[in-house]
Design goal:
By secondary structure, the protein is mostly helical. The protein has helices spanning 2-24, 27-40, 46-53, 103-106, 109-112, 121-124, 145-148, 158-169, 199-207, 209-212, 225-236, 245-248, 256-265, 288-291, 294-302, 304-307, 320-332, 335-344, 351-365, 368-372, 396-399, 402-411, 438-450, and strands spanning 62-64, 69-71, 177-178, 181-182, 273-274, 277-278. A two-stranded antiparallel sheet has the order 1-2. The chain has a two-stranded antiparallel ribbon with strand order 3-4. It is flat. It starts with a helix and ends in an 8-residue tail after the last helix. The chain binds heme C (6 copies).
């Protein structure tokens, strides 16, 4: 009996050890074995095949000091750089369109999120309670491009530029700080993309702030789905992480689209033709990139005088990638481009019109529209203020002189309270004298005055 009992307990122990061993044999080893098996399929040479199958299993990691991270995703995602794995199942699939963001220099998490150091799937994908940056859903991965490419356009990701444009024109800064500039009624958005919110939350919040954030003072802008998506992309790209200079060197991608935009802004068409269309005082730019090297053209944009002494071409203050972008545009520009640029050119404004236009821009850029509305119509709810909403500015000239309005903009104004026992109204008119120059405030006043409606007109 004792011998039998001893033998049985040995077996029981062995079984227990086997269970423990299996539980701790990490899944990544299984994935690596499977990957080597896939690699070896179809390998004719028996020796090579054997070498493949017996490749030692190891944790793969990329040290990325410039991005302050260490990524081990390629421990399982083994085929990202192997085009023969195009049709392999995940996690072995070849990664299309990765160049020039090679895994050895970029890793994975800077675009995807997830937890770089982890080697089991759940933790690596960040789908655990404590990790605040889980993998981005597929449709939002490209928002990460904006973490590094912060200006101009990112090819294939129009949402980023559109989101930035909406942010700067819809008055978000009136209530939100971004990189130190803006109001403080809403949260600072400088690191909105770093943690805090999931993409779906942001998108729903933009469609209707109240739906996800009870009695939010943030107005419903009635954005379309596309606009909400663009803003969500832009928000997700807002991180203020420290990056090595290599990574931040390409803030602006020198794309043809951005080059065209600069070509329009700098009014190059005022002196040049493309394929015969335009103004003839300078040379025709069709095919100019075939006649000169890109180095020569770059030099020409930096210092036209050096290339053509006495040239009437102005010197432009364009940074390296802006010049590259213009050259990229000129390489593909046609007479058709020249025609559409000429057609889109606004007629010159008078000095008075220019001041009003500048005031309108300020009114949007500094967030006045956020509270007062794009048409100055007011109407944003402001509970417990008299009237219950932010007033319209269309009749300000009935109550105030222009000087008085300038004073209000400079010093701010709290709305009269309906019931002093209830909480103060959430929205008040901030003081702008430390934000806007006197000139900017005068322009805003000019703009307001250009739109005044006399009440007795109807
Ligand atoms: C333990 C192995 C393992 C590690 C480590 C791992 N993954 Fe995965 N990953 C998988 C497997 C298996 C799949 C496919 C199965 C699935 O869809 O759940 C997958 C799918 C994915 C997908 C596509 C599907 C999805 O869920 O969105 C992405 C993106 C991804 N991984 C990114 C990463 C990143 C980034 C890292 C590093 C932070 C990483 N993975 C680390 C095993 C791993
Ligand atoms: C420069 C940014 C960038 C980097 C770096 C990057 N990816 Fe991706 N990845 C993307 C984008 C964008 C997509 C979405 C492609 C699409 O929409 O079809 C994607 C798609 C994927 C998918 C397929 C997702 C799905 O749902 O089918 C996997 C898996 C994946 N990446 C893994 C990785 C791994 C592993 C690394 C690191 C070796 C990595 N990626 C590095 C941008 C990146
Ligand atoms: C971590 C920062 C980072 C992220 C995130 C990133 N990029 Fe880049 N990107 C770079 C750097 C750095 C280069 C220059 C690479 C080189 O030339 O060595 C570059 C180059 C490029 C270029 C080529 C520019 C040229 O000079 O022609 C394109 C296009 C581009 N990125 C698009 C994207 C897209 C699309 C995404 C998102 C899927 C993305 N990038 C995400 C840093 C980043
Ligand atoms: C009238 C003031 C006001 C304006 C204008 C405004 N917001 Fe807000 N916003 C708020 C307040 C207050 C909150 C906090 C309550 C909430 O979550 O809705 C908020 C919340 C947010 C959040 C969520 C922040 C977080 O993580 O909790 C985002 C993102 C945001 N706003 C973006 C924007 C954008 C983009 C615009 C311009 C289209 C904008 N806001 C215009 C007041 C405003
Ligand atoms: C005020 C007029 C003027 C403006 C504005 C102007 N250019 Fe020029 N540019 C010239 C003249 C004139 C020349 C030819 C040099 C000469 O013959 O003196 C020239 C030469 C060039 C050349 C070299 C052409 C060749 O074949 O040698 C390029 C390229 C060029 N310009 C691009 C631009 C771009 C891009 C812009 C806008 C950013 C621009 N120019 C704006 C007047 C102008
Ligand atoms: C955070 C919301 C908010 C922002 C941003 C804001 N205002 Fe106001 N503003 C108010 C409120 C609330 C009042 C109403 C005070 C009252 O009811 O008497 C007001 C009042 C005014 C008035 C006086 C109107 C009147 O009938 O009393 C003017 C003029 C004005 N704002 C202009 C501006 C300009 C210009 C900007 C941008 C530079 C701006 N506001 C930005 C909330 C805001």
């Amino acid at each position: 009996m004792p011998q039998l009992f001893f033998a049985l307990s040995l077996i029981a122990l062995a079984l227990m050890l086997a269970v423990v061993w299996q539980a701790s044999a990490p899944a990544w080893k299984t994935y690596q074995r499977e990957f080597h098996r896939l690699e070896a399929v179809g390998e004719p040479n028996a020796l090579t095949k054997n070498a493949m199958l017996t490749t030692p299993l190891d944790i793969r990691q990329v040290l990325l000091p410039g991005l302050q991270r260490v990524d081990r995703c390629t421990t399982c995602h083994l085929g990202v750089e192997d085009p023969t794995m195009r049709n392999a199942p995940q996690p072995f699939t070849f990664h299309a369109n990765l160049a020039p963001h090679l895994p050895a220099r970029f890793g994975c998490t800077v675009c995807h999120g997830g937890q770089g150091l982890a080697t089991d799937q759940q933790n690596a994908h960040g789908k655990v309670e404590f990790w605040q940056e889980p993998l981005l859903p597929r449709e939002y991965i490209r928002a990460s491009c904006g973490r590094c490419h912060k200006e101009g356009e990112v090819p294939g990701v129009p949402e980023l530029a559109e989101g930035r444009r909406l942010f700067e024109t819809q008055g978000c800064r009136g209530c939100h700080k971004l990189n130190g500039v803006g109001g403080s009624i809403g949260p600072d958005l400088t690191e909105e993309g770093a943690v805090r919110r999931f993409p779906e939350w942001l998108a729903r919040h933009f469609l209707d702030p109240n739906a996800v954030s009870k009695s939010s003072p943030m107005p419903n802008f009635h954005f379309t789905k596309e606009q909400a998506r663009a803003l969500t992309f832009y928000m997700l790209s807002l991180t203020s992480e420290q990056m090595g200079t290599y990574y931040s060197s390409v803030r602006l991608i020198p794309s043809a689209g951005y080059g065209r935009q600069l070509f329009v802004e700098k009014n190059c068409i005022a002196c040049h033709t493309i394929g015969g269309v335009g103004s003839k005082s300078g040379s025709d730019l069709l095919g100019v990139t075939k006649q000169h090297s890109s180095g020569w053209l770059d030099e020409q944009l930096v210092n036209p005088q050096l290339v053509y002494p006495g040239s009437s071409m102005p010197e432009y203050d364009l940074e390296t990638n802006a010049r590259k972008a213009i050259v990229t545009f000129m390489a593909s520009a046609t007479a058709e481009d020249a025609r559409s640029i000429l057609a889109g050119r606004a007629k010159p404004l008078t000095a008075q019109e220019a001041a009003i236009e500048a005031g309108k821009q300020n009114f949007a850029r500094f967030g006045c529209v956020g509270c007062h509305g794009i048409q100055l119509q007011g109407g944003v709810p402001n509970p417990n203020s008299q009237g219950g909403e932010v007033p319209s500015l269309l009749h300000a000239s009935d109550d105030y002189t222009k000087q008085e309005v300038i004073k209000i903009i400079q010093n701010g104004k709290a709305p009269p309270v309906e019931n002093s026992k209830k909480p103060a109204p959430p929205l008040y008119m901030p003081s702008w004298k430390n934000v806007l120059s006197e000139e900017d405030i005068n322009r805003v006043a000019d703009y307001l005055w250009s739109l005044q409606k006399k009440r007795d007109a109807w």
